[in-house]
Design goal:
Helix content is about 30%, strand content about 20%. It is of the alpha+beta class. The protein starts with 6 loop residues before the first helix and ends in a 9-residue tail after the last helix.
């Protein structure tokens, strides 16, 4: 058996398991692609080999600050716009202050808005607006155009980190502004090392270790960690903290989980459970396509029985998903604290 090392090989392998080319598998190629995508989504969500832990590094910019404009999402690009049209971003009417921006849009050949650039808005303005406290809510907007119509935008203020599509979970963030860091002269760790380092080779390390544990406990008790809010469908991780403790140019490091992309790591296509599950989903699609012809008699006395194919695939799917939970998923850990 040839080992599938690409999406095309994987689809052919699944169809051969169902009987191709001896049998005609009545499934459209687009349906096969849909079922493979569905199998991969389930694989990434539950299989311990479907995702792995990673540390995502993000350099903070002024657009990340919660009082500043972060980005302008394009819900609908509309038609008939030009690159000379502008979007005006301003504070919601119920609030006062906040910087007003006029941004030229970027359109494609059909006059559809594809980008509203916000990267360099704060180059020459005071952070948070000109002498104001910045945005209190996601700002409002208007579009100045003479020919365009139908565009729907969604300006968002900061307070979050935008993540790539391959991140499917964020569980932690490295502490920001902790008293134990070593980037200043007056932190506790530096002072202990400065005064007691010459004795650490001749005395017990237990007092030093206990002191560090106590300092960490006090920091956790009095300061705590920064709460996170993450939704994978938004690809945004909100950090509920006082953003004044961090400066533009500093780095935030998130403990996250990212998918194992089979287009990069091709051995994913050779996973036994994924092969069986994708084959089962294609079989279920096959049965669903043929169910409407159940009982129809062909020349030679042959009759369609798509319902049986569908029922067999449905039962196999339940067994495979149960096997996933009990054999291939990491156990759920207790929440402590």
């Amino acid at each position: 058996m040839a080992t599938p090392l690409s999406r095309t090989d994987f689809k052919e392998y699944c169809l051969r398991r169902l009987g191709k080319p001896v049998l005609n598998i009545n499934v459209d190629p687009d349906q096969v692609d849909d079922r493979v995508d569905e199998a991969l989504l389930y694989f990434w969500d539950y299989h311990f080999d479907g995702s792995d832990k990673s540390y995502y590094k993000h350099q903070v910019s002024v657009n990340n600050l919660p009082t500043n404009l972060s980005e302008v999402m394009i819900v609908s690009g509309g038609v008939g716009y030009s690159n000379n049209d502008t979007v005006s971003i301003f504070q919601q009417p119920q609030y006062t202050g906040g910087q007003t921006f006029n941004i030229q849009v970027v359109t494609d050949n059909y006059g559809t808005i594809i980008n509203v650039p916000t990267a360099n808005l704060y180059t020459n303005v005071i952070v948070g607006g000109t002498g104001t406290s910045g945005y209190f809510a996601d700002p409002a907007y208007t579009i100045s155009t003479s020919t365009g119509s139908g565009a729907v935008l969604n300006p968002l203020k900061g307070g979050y980190i935008k993540l790539p599509d391959n991140i499917i979970g964020v569980v932690n963030m490295f502490p920001v502004g902790q008293s134990l860091n070593t980037n200043n002269l007056f932190n506790i760790r530096y002072q202990i090392a400065l005064n007691d380092l010459y004795t650490l080779t001749s005395v017990s390390m237990v007092p030093y270790y206990m002191a560090m544990q106590h300092v960490q406990f006090l920091e956790q008790l009095l300061v705590g960690q920064q709460p996170l809010r993450y939704n994978r469908h938004k690809n945004r991780c909100y950090v509920d903290m006082d953003w004044n403790i961090i400066n533009p140019g500093d780095f935030i490091i998130l403990e996250a989980y990212q998918i194992v992309d089979p287009n990069v790591y091709t051995m994913v296509w050779n996973d036994r459970w994924l092969q069986r599950y994708a084959t089962c989903l294609i079989k279920q699609q096959w049965g669903s396509n043929l169910k409407k012809f159940s009982g129809m008699q062909l020349p030679g006395g042959i009759t369609f029985n798509g319902q049986q194919i569908y029922n067999e695939a449905t039962e196999e799917r339940k067994e495979l998903e149960t096997e996933m939970i009990y054999s291939y998923s990491l156990p759920i850990t207790d929440m402590i604290g």
